[in-house]
Structure formats: structure tokens, C-alpha cells
Amino acid sequence: MVALASTIPPLHHTLYRGSDRHRSRPLPEVYTPRGIYSSGAFSPQGRLLVATIELTLKNFEEVVSSNDVVLIDFWAAWCAPCRAFAPTYEKVSLLYPNAVFAKVDTEAQHALAASLHIMAIPTLMIMRHTDVVFTRAGAPREKALVKTIEKVLAKDAPDAQRHTKDQ
């Protein structure tokens, strides 16, 4: 069943937490207000818990400077690969609560995308301590995205930058 994020029905699943196991029923599918397909987590009140934030010229400096790790997905509504990558990005964002997962709508934020030299979409950029440590055009699969994030989190910024240039 598909519902609008603003009219999400009450929570219909339960999370079971144990020391070594996490079980849950499938999460409901929704469309976010921006029209991006998403399967997100829901609060006990049935509200969609936003796993990503919208990045703009106005909030870019604040978000990047006040967080250690920021992942940025550059996308556009007309881009089919961008829409296909959105659920994966949202799902993986729930695995890393200490990192900020942001999205930049390149149609609405031309200047921001241009200032970061974005030439194709979707593009994933990872910033650590305000430095760009990873940039790649294309929509990675979930395992590849997790592996990339783990590498960036495990290394210091200069090593991660070298890793990006080698690929």
C-alpha cells in the first residue's frame, strides 16, 4: 500500500530488540513530500522518521561544519537512477546514526551542485571534517554503499582522499 508521508496511517509493525537480534515486519512504503520513493522507519505515533535532510546553499556550511561525516546524494526528480537509488540511500542512512545523510536537488540547487563540481547524477559525495573524501557518479548497490561508508569511517581523511583518486 502506498500513502503520502503527510497522511501516514498509524504504526502497523513492531520492532523486537534483543541483545543479538533485530526482527521487524516490512516497513510501509511511502512517497515523501518531494515525490521520492522511500521505505522509512516510523515513530510510535506513525510519523515518518526522516533519515535524510535536504541540503541547500543556506544550510550547507552549517551542516558540513557541525558534523564529522556528511554523505550527500545529488539527484533530480526526472532522473530514474536517482529515484531507484533513493530507497537504498534512506535504508543505509538508518544504519549510521552518527553520520548525516543529505540530499541535494540539483534542479533547485544549481549553484550548490556547480560549486561542488557535480557533472552527473546521481552522484554520491562523502565529506569528513569539511573535506571531500569520496565522490562517485552512479547509484551504488546497498552492499557497495555500506562498504564505501565503512572504508571512509575507518580511515583518516587523507587516506580516504587517496582511495578516491585511485578508483
Notes on the protein architecture:
The protein folds into two domains: 1-50, no CATH class; 51-167, 3-Layer(aba) Sandwich (Glutaredoxin), CATH 3.40.30. 29% of the residues lie in helices and 28% in strands. It has five helices and twelve strands. It has helices at 60-65, 80-93, 110-115, 142-154, 157-166; strands spanning 2-4, 15-17, 22-24, 29-31, 37-38, 41-42, 48-49, 53-54, 69-75, 100-105, 123-128, 131-137. Strands 8-10-9-11-12 form a five-stranded mixed sheet. The N and C termini lie far apart (41 Å).
Overall domain count: 2
Query: Beta-strand level of the residues, as a percent range?
Result: 25-35%
CATH architecture name of the largest domain: 3-Layer(aba) Sandwich
> Main sheet?
5 strands, mixed
Order of helices and strands: EEEEEEEEHEHEHEEHH
Percent of residues in helices comes to 25-40%
Structure classification: alpha/beta
Shape: globular
Mean pLDDT, nearest integer?
A: 75
Determine the CATH superfamily of the largest domain. Glutaredoxin
- Fill in the CATH topology of the largest domain: Glutaredoxin
> What is the C-level CATH assignment of the largest domain?
Alpha Beta
Radius of gyration (CA) equals 16 Å
The stretches of 5 or more residues where confidence is low (pLDDT under 50) are 1-40, 159-167
Number of helices: 5
> Strand arrangement, largest sheet?
8-10-9-11-12
